[in-house]
């Protein structure tokens, strides 16, 4: 990963979040009490929009960095 490369980091974050969500869905099949619902509501649910927003910002910043790098090479 070269300096300024946000694409790799964003891909890793997306993959890890997807993996966590799949494992959580599997876990809920066995653990389905009030504690699991509280855990999901308190810790996992707030992460979804935050991760989506982070990934959008990383894509936008990556685009800006690529454009700046291109402009500097000219």
List keywords for this structure.
0% strand; single chain; 3 helices; 74 residues; elongated; mainly alpha
How would you characterize the overall build of this protein?
- It is a single chain.
- The chain has a domain of 43 residues.
- 84% of the residues lie in helices and 0% in strands.
- It contains three helices and no strands.
- Helix 1 runs antiparallel to helix 3.
- The model has no long low-confidence stretch (mean pLDDT 92).
**Major β-sheet, in short?**
none
Q: Evaluate the radius of gyration.
A: 17 Å
Overall pLDDT confidence: 92
Spans where pLDDT lies below 50 across 5 or more residues:
none
What structural class is derived from the secondary structure elements?
A: mainly alpha
> Could you say which overall geometry the principal axes of the C-alpha atoms support?
elongated
How many beta-strand runs? 0
Percent range for β-strand residues: under 5%
Query: What's the end-to-end separation, in Å?
Result: 23 Å
DSSP helical segment count: 3
Helix share bin: over 70%
Per-chain topology:
Layout (H helix, E strand, L loop, with lengths): L6 H24 L3 H11 L2 H27 L1
């Amino acid at each position: 990963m070269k300096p300024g490369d946000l694409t790799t980091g964003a891909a890793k974050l997306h993959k890890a979040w997807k993996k966590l969500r799949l494992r959580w869905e599997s876990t809920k099949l066995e653990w389905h009490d009030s504690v699991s619902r509280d855990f999901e509501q308190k810790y996992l649910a707030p992460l979804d929009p935050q991760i989506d927003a982070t990934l959008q910002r990383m894509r936008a910043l990556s685009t800006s960095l690529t454009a700046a790098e291109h402009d500097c090479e000219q």
